[in-house]
Design goal:
211 residues, alpha+beta, 4 helices, 50% strand
């Protein structure tokens, strides 16, 4: 079949336009593919939830003559950040029973009074150096409210309410042993306010005293 010169010229022109355009598109796509590095590998904490307790406060609580049964729950909200919530039950510690008996065995002062209270804590932790949080060094704010109510068991309803309020910036280290055991130590600086509220049931009056 014979091809006219006009058709041949038209075909060559079209090929000259299409081929460079296709080559340019292919090169652009290849360059874009080289620049794309893919998604980052997601990071996860080594444990999502940690429940902790402490034996020392059972003997020595924050408030004098009080012991604390304390439970703290730490929840990871990111691979290196967590929040913690804690609750304690206050009761007379061992020294509250032993010391009055040593000083005066004939007195039963502690038996005459009820000493009960509670504590709540809240904290935020940031683990800047650890890839296995909640293991490693951490720091963050820590808040605590602790109270105990002292009242005569067979009295007229008068009482003393002891209050401890703390707001601190703490830092510490949490170690992990095996798969399920954690141990931590921390300390810090902050603000505290300790005060007592006295209530007289006869006069219905309350007054506050700083401790």
């Amino acid at each position: 079949m014979r091809c006219r010169p006009g058709y041949l010229l038209f075909l060559l022109v079209m090929l000259g336009v299409v081929l460079p355009a296709y080559a340019q598109k292919t090169e652009t796509d290849t360059s874009a593919t080289r620049r794309f590095k893919g998604f980052r590998t997601p990071r996860f904490p080594s444990a999502d939830n940690v429940i902790k307790s402490n034996l020392i406060p059972i003997l020595f609580g924050q408030i004098p003559l009080c012991g604390e049964i304390r439970v703290t729950y730490e929840r990871m909200i990111w691979h290196n950040q967590s929040i913690s919530l804690g609750a304690s039950y206050n009761f007379p510690n061992l020294f509250a029973f032993v010391m009055p008996a040593i000083i005066n065995p004939n007195r039963t002062t502690l038996k005459r009074y009820s000493l009960r209270g509670a504590r709540i804590t809240f904290g935020y932790r940031y683990y800047p150096l650890s890839s296995e949080a909640p293991k490693g060094f951490f720091f963050g704010p820590y808040f605590s409210y602790n109270f105990v109510r002292i009242q005569e068991r067979h009295g007229n309803g008068s009482y003393e309410l002891v209050n401890y309020i703390n707001g601190s910036l703490i830092c510490g280290y949490q170690a992990k042993f095996g798969k399920h055991i954690f141990f931590e130590v921390f300390g810090g600086l902050g603000y505290k306010r300790n005060f007592s509220v006295f209530y007289d049931s006869r006069s219905k009056d309350k007054f506050t005293e700083d401790l």
